[in-house]
Amino acid sequence: MKTTLVIFASCFLYFSVQAQYYLRGEVQDEKGSLITNARIILHSTGFLYSSGSDGSFGIVSSRQVDSVTVSQEGYQPKVFVLTNGVYQVLKLKQLQAAANATRARLVSVTKNFRPQDRKGWVVGGETYSSLIENEFIPASTYPESGFAIHTDKASYSNIRRFLNMNTMIPPDAVRTEEVLNYFDFDYKAPPKDSVFGYESVVTDCPWNDQSKLLLLKVDARKLEPEKIPPSNLVFLIDVSGSMDLPNRLPLLKSAFKLLVNNLRDKDTVSIVVYGSAVGVWLPPISGKEKDSIRRSIEGLFPVGSTPGESGIRTAYQLAKNTFIKGGNNRVILATDGDFNVGQSTEDELDKLITQHQQLGIYLTCLGVGMGNYKDSKLEVLAKKGNGNFAYLDNEAEAEKVLVKELTQTLYTVADDAYLNISFNSKWVQDYRLIGYDNKTRALADSLSQIEGGEVGSGHSLMALIELKTTDDIQSITARDKQYLGSVSISYKNPGDSIIRYSGYVVPLVYTPYSELPQSYRFATSLSMFTAMLKESEYAKKITWSQVIDSCNKSIDPNNSLQKEFLQIVEKARKIYLRQRKRKAGAN
Questions:
Q1: What is the rounded distance in angstroms from the CA atom of residue 161 to the CA atom of residue 350?
Q2: pTM for the full model?
């Protein structure tokens, strides 16, 4: 601590003596649009700065004339010379090829480690990103690992849809972290001065008696109702011919009408549609005009092709025109994702969203439908658009996402959030992150980077890590003051470019599995369930009977979502055991 204070004091003294000049300006693209969060490296010191939410910057320098390198994803880096007292506009040229804009992003990463490739599934007309499951990593060689924090929940309701159709689930449709995100784990508010609060337990691993299990819970701060900023919401609704089914456009109309009930007078709403044509269906209107908004929604009808690209461009332009400074500016895209006119591949859509990312406008994706549902495209859009992703399989799910969990879905407390965990190799021999699996294409790209996520108000995250320990840790007590590792979260406040950090030391205190709080045992049951669906190589010792027994012992009988989960597991057991018998008979 003393060393840290000395460093800060030295830095303060240095700048007090040396800093004499102030370099100011803003970063724009070739069309004059402001670029937020551009990276600015001051050559005289090597220090990194960023342009703010309005594209501007101010840098203290010891030189009257200094130079900087400015870069931003999707643009050509460029060197500029800055002069004290002169407000300068720095223009970046957009990359036409946009190699960086379309580069795949990692969900989790272990530094310097590259896993083996595995094959993915292709299922009918539905598309899913091919995933590679995380494997055991030696802590002595690769002690640091991490993952992007996000509030996506689409995988669970999509799994439920498959099982309700009496169908097996494509393994790549199973994303364990999204299944865990779907449920609340006894939320506890962080300290008043913190964005995140932490809890952890070390316990037995139910599927491997040679391993231990680390469960890490992170709770994000809840916005106080009176401090929730005004919203500028653009509903971008797919009204193409493919939406002409009861579980598509009619479901979305019901969903948006539910959302309208929560609008406030200070909120602004507009509607953009795309189908036979692309246009503004409802010009910007106050949230107090609920009847007018509902009538506009009710009047929607499906027809034509799916020009998703044009719809996205129109919605972002409208959101930009009605931008509320300091507000919650968000496009809510509702579609089956089956874009068939204009840019339609994941790479093209990635590039398109990157071009609008700097505007400070979030993107929430609501997926519907089956048969031609494009999960992979909507996942790309949500992650690239600094947003979140949900799948609506029925009206109850729409109410959950857009009414009961409205603040989690639409209001952000942390941007570009990334959790890093460093293991203590004294106690941890090998570790395996459960979930947060990467796309095959991202791992194949040697220049891929981790992409932080958006964290919604009051979100409760549960992460599970399987451990092979170096010694018998069951005898370690809190009195011994041993630690398993340390956790840090890097993030930005909404609308801010400053990177902030939050930290936690993971104590090494063993708790028998039977003594765990109900929420931790339930999280473990969810993990076992997804491992079975993915047919994970780490689930070979798990049986469906074991999963159901674990669920029965861990669910809260007063929680309707957890009770429904038990029913879903029962359905899955019947479907998968029946399929296993068919395979055995065929052999």
A1: 27
A2: 0.74
